[in-house]
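chain below, 154 aa
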Amino acid sequence: MRTVPPFAALCLTILLAGCSGHKPAASAPAAAPTLAGDPAHPGVTQGWVDTKLYFGLGLADHPEQGISEARWREFLDREVTPRFPDGLSVLDIYGQWQGKTQSSPERLHTKCLVIDYPDTQPNRDKIEAIRAAWKKITGDQSVMRVTVPADVSF
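prediction:
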């Protein structure tokens, strides 16, 4: 069983940056929404969140030993898209982390799944079901989740 919680250092960096106490400069005014009347893609949102899920596919130096692109897409089609059919983004990224008992970091080929959605208990449950499905399929101990409030406009 692999123990690959991806991007612990990245997560810490993000958290520390968010807790620095610095206020961002005034943001530019939001552009007018281009969609109207579409419940899945409203022109203006309230109570939405942006969630990033990090899935370790295997060691970057040995991609043939990890999860294939075909297997990833099968997971996406079976576990993710039915839960969030209105849209999402998938990013190919490289990350690393070092466990307490490791002498050097593991360098990982990783998929980052980005989903924006209304912050409701059913949607939070869907996110947790995706994480649980990945851990069951791969034997990984974790899928890192980062969720922040989102001001979304379509």
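Residues 1-25 have pLDDT under 50 and may be disordered. Residues 58 and 64 are 9 Å apart (CA to CA).
thats it, cya
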